[in-house]
Amino acid sequence: MSFTMKKGLALSCAAALLLASAACSSAKNNAQTEGSASPQATATTSSQPSDSAAATGKYDPPITLTTVRANDTALFTEGQTMDKNAIYDAYEQDLGITLKNNWVVDTKEYDSKLKISIAANDLPDFFKVSAEDLPRLVESDMVMDLTEVFEQYASEETKKLVVSDGGKQMQSATFDGKLMAIPQTNSPFNAASFVWVRQDWLQEMNLPEPKTMQDLLQISEAFASRNTGGKGKAFGLGLDKDQIGSPIGFLNGYHAYPGQWVKDSSGKLVYGSTQPEVKTALKQLQDMYKAGQIDPEVAVNDNAKMLEQVSNDRVGMLFGAFWYSAAMQDAVVKDGKVTQEWGVYTIPSVDGDPAMSQVSASVASYYVVNKNAEHPEAVMKVLNQWVDALLGGKPADGDPRAVYSFGKELKDMGNEAWAINPLTIFIQDLYVQGGQHLGKALDTGDTSAIEWSGDLKNRYDQVKKFEAGDTTFWYQVDIAGKGGAFEKMYEYSQQNRYHFDEFYGVATPTMAERGDLLKTKEQEVFTKIIIGAASIDEFDKFVADWTKLGGDKITEEVNEWHASRQ
């Protein structure tokens, strides 16, 4: 699947496994990005305004916290609204916190409505803001320094969860050493790339596993020469029109990181797409294209076309995310029978230094607390309650704690009710942890290490169903099974092979003005080079043009940002 489609599919399906609600019925619904969220209603310690709150974790009498919300009517069952719903009621019952929305608008109107509220200085106690708006609120002294509040009132579980990426996303919410927001954390690791290879072809053709880039190139050459039995020309490496302009996984094997900002030898940040390693990798792809190892229609074929080629035994190797077997489910399983055997591998290196997979700690949204809020500690308690839900395992239907996952019905109704919670953050390393524990659980039947996560337990159950003969869950074996993508994610982690973008701030002024133009030009040039419509020397002209068209100014701005974070 293309990186564009990957992103859209992952985000559109995230909620299903965030709540680990039920086994998804199709492969598409299982291409997920985040962890499970099955609430466990607990009373946290803490709050200074009331002796009762400090002793029991619940305000008595209740206090009110105001917020503002984006509304999605699809979240609600009959009789429930964003202003009156079972999840808001649960916070009042469990914590003594009455949640009140100052206003509710359609999702598409939220940002513009919030800007009006900011301009009027008419803000609730806490609210969600975009990465673009956060610096303006901080500079305008409208939001509270949460450093001490978070330290004193965030639970240990919350504190651990938000730094499981090494603290990079929390760092993005820090200004002059002060924590000014809570990032809506997500998993940077889920964007890692892997090599997906037809395992049965490797065995049939007596080929090595792709442990080095030289192995991969040998495999590509051999696969491209396969006889498909009249189904069309075979190709060594599958790509589509969205990948060809930025073939990230392949370039990572050459220690090239397109689109990222990386440190040079002096410690300054430079743009990854303009570095010489990119040119080397593009030249190799150009050679593969000329040799007939890449589809000559790659610049116009979409991902559906590439999956058709997979189905017709014309493509047996490609780069993709951990969930890519889900995208291939229908191409592989036909009439209930598995027709192909695929394996997943970490990115091979062109030399003796291990290849790293590029990821980013960038955050799209943050939660801030009004500088004048009376009960900032209560916001931390709402956060803790959500984290308890996130880490509590999948609740049984009817269990009172299921309210935070499923709302009034206390069971999955397919409406993603979890999103009604006013403050949600997500597990950053869920699938890395899955890679550590799932294999052992599958071997021994002991699921104690994964019971805390409805998502991981759900995947365990699906692998077991496949082993019992249910081919509906073929895709899950290469994701969560032994030797699957989760184990490779854990391997990346253990070997320090995640390559983080050094820039994770909001777009700089010139980036906002010129970034889209420069990115479009970059993808056009890379595509032309790979398909032979331009000489490899065109890369040098691209670097010069990128610099003149605003890249030099962006580099200056990025390094100013970088210096401010030191």
UniProtKB/TrEMBL annotation:
Gene3D superfamilies: Periplasmic binding protein-like II. Residues 36-56 have a biased composition (Low complexity). It comes from the Bacteria. Transmembrane segments: none annotated. SUPFAM superfamilies: Periplasmic binding protein-like II. PROSITE patterns: PROKAR_LIPOPROTEIN (PS51257). Residues 1-27 form the signal peptide. Keywords: Signal. This is Putative aldouronate transport system substrate-binding protein. InterPro entries: Bact_solute-bd_prot1 (IPR050490). Residues 30-59 are annotated as: Disordered.
